[in-house]
Specification:
This protein is α/β, with parallel strands linked by helices and 292 residues long. 48% of the residues lie in helices and 13% in strands. It contains 11 helices and 7 strands. Helix 1 (2-31) crosses helix 3 (44-53). 27% of the residues are buried.
Length: 292
Amino acid sequence: MFHRWSNSSHQDQESSELYAENKIKELKGATGPLSGRGLIYCTDACLKRYLEARNWNVDKAKKMLEDTLKWRSNYKPEEIRWPEVAMEGETGKLYRASFHDRQGRTVLILRPGMQNTASMDNQMRHLVYLLENAMLNLAPGQEQMAWLIDFTGWSLTNNVPLKSARETINILQNHYPERLAIAFLYNPPRVFEAFWKIVKYFLDTKTFQKVKFVYPKKKDSVELMKSYFDEENLPKELGGKSVMSYNHEEFSRLMVQDDLKCAAFWGSDEKPSNHIAKGHSAAAVCNETPGT
């Protein structure tokens, strides 16, 4: 009996893979020939993500993909470089973690209580830069990233404006479909609940289901988060055992090197930037000490 079940499961997997391959071919045909960066962007894995985001409806996936290609052509996210957005990152309000989750996925840490600027346009460019950087650093075969959102220091006085929240959701859902694996909101204050009641209506069902609230005193939510992350890697402020501090200069050096990787990937020649170490052109990284 077990052998028959195993064969059936294997056949179902093969059938699903064949279905996906056929849908990808169909979307390729519907999209037509591509060139330049559009061709680099539209890998089979990319097309699969757009199909998944639109429940394998080729026409809807095609519309979504075309909108993204138009957005990328105008916004040029792959051309944003760290010195342009380094000022946004000075407080460590958003950065790529030096650890991965249990699935080997890139992790972004967001600390909304550390907001330090007022320009929504610059904040969105900073976000897009870090999304592109996270994608650049995904392991081979890995398509998604994880978010850890730390509400330490958050209050209504430094709350993200609703317009910024909507634009963040718009960018993530419409131009980075199926890139988010999971997002943990750690210990948000009760006052956040009113804000969340409004924001959640802008989320599609798939994205909404990936957002998890974690409260230190609620064991089930803590255990869920720890099932995604090694406790030795998680920062203490997020319930883990690692002592971490954001170092802007070190992170900047890392980002400047990644800018070269980005340029090479997209096919543009660039020389190393000298904008490291001071002022708004600086950048930085995380110092980590394992907890005891």
